[in-house]
């Protein structure tokens, strides 16, 4: 059988680096891609919310929206399993819109003191319509632009700084705030601070995780806090997991924190219930860490 022979010879002619493990990984990859397309059609990408807390008062000042894939079989799937694949296949824009629309539609009913932060992928910062798309989501949900924070990572700025600047300017003109996410992990962090008008600097979790045990991490976080204070840009610290870290970053003058010490990401319904149980006054939206 000629066809079979040909198939056999193609098989043997395969480069040796293409091993079975890689083949399985490719199949898994394309299955996830198909799954994402299916999930988008069925509204399976939903927001989880992580509380952001005033480090001095303990009040909840906002929530960061974190995408979860509410897969009917595997349950909520973490972003690292699907965001890179969605980015690679040009699906991240649709996915983000689904998550942000859902998040704002829920958050519009919460206390007006609460800000909502959303994440934007590097590939989205090459979309010249990004600002218009976000403005449309605000219009659709009635969520005020002034309460929206768009988090962009340093690596977002590498592809096309001029386009990034144009998008960022349109966002700012609408009253939307801008946060520099994962600060300290990219190249020329300091140059980026000058190049774009950030309203918030978010210190990356990698420095915070080792702060209590590693004097160098503590020195970096303190230096960033000092720099930010000089630039009059407030600092948000991510990844606070214990009281020692909380006390340390508050001592460095950082204004807002988030992390498992204050609470893990929860669904919108859980946020609604939590805010309701804390009564109505904004000042009553306190998180006591030992119950979280
Ligand atoms: P990020 O924006 O730096 O988000 C913070 C990540 O750290 C979140 O992981 C969060 O769950 C995790 N985290 C928060 N506090 C703690 C803590 O105290 N300890 C530890 N160990 N981890 C903590 P998650 O949800 O897996 O998100 C990972 C990344 O995925 C995010 O990093 C963000 O860059 C990206 N991402 C999440 N949602 C979206 C989205 O809707 N759109 C886009 N484009 N990217 C998203
Ligand atoms: Mg973020
Ligand atoms: Mg971050
Ligand atoms: Mg980070």
From TrEMBL:
* Keyword check for Iron: no
> Where does the signal peptide begin and end?
none
Residues covered by the EAL domain: 29-279
Question: Which keywords has UniProt assigned to this entry?
Answer: Membrane, Transmembrane, Transmembrane helix
Q: By what name is this protein known?
A: Bifunctional diguanylate cyclase/phosphodiesterase
């Amino acid at each position: 059988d000629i066809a079979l022979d040909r198939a056999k010879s193609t098989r043997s002619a395969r480069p040796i680096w293409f091993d079975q493990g890689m083949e399985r990984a490719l199949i898994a990859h394309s299955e996830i891609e198909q799954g994402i397309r299916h999930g988008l059609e069925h509204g399976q990408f939903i927001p989880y919310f992580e509380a952001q807390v005033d480090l001095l008062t303990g009040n909840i000042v906002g929530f960061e929206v974190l995408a979860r894939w509410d897969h009917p079989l595997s349950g909520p799937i973490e972003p690292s399993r699907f965001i890179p694949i969605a980015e690679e296949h040009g699906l991240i824009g649709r996915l983000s819109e689904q998550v942000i629309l859902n998040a704002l539609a829920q958050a519009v009913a919460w206390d007006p003191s609460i800000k909502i932060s959303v994440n934007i992928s590097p590939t989205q910062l090459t979309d010249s319509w990004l600002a218009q798309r976000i403005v449309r989501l605000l219009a659709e949900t009635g969520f005020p632009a002034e309460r929206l924070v768009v988090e962009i990572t340093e690596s977002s700025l590498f592809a096309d700084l001029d386009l990034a600047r144009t998008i960022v300017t349109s966002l700012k003109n609408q009253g939307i705030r801008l946060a520099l996410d994962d600060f300290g992990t990219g190249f020329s962090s300091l140059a980026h601070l000058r190049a774009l008008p950030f309203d918030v600097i978010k210190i990356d979790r990698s420095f915070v995780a080792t702060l209590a045990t590693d004097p160098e991490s503590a020195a970096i976080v303190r230096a960033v806090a000092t720099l930010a204070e000089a630039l009059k840009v407030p600092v948000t610290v991510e990844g606070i997991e214990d009281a020692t870290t909380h006390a340390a970053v508050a001592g460095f003058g950082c204004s807002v924190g988030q992390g498992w010490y204050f609470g893990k990401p929860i669904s919108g319904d859980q946020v609604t219930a939590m805010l309701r149980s804390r009564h109505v006054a904004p000042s009553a939206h306190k998180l006591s860490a030992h119950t979280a």
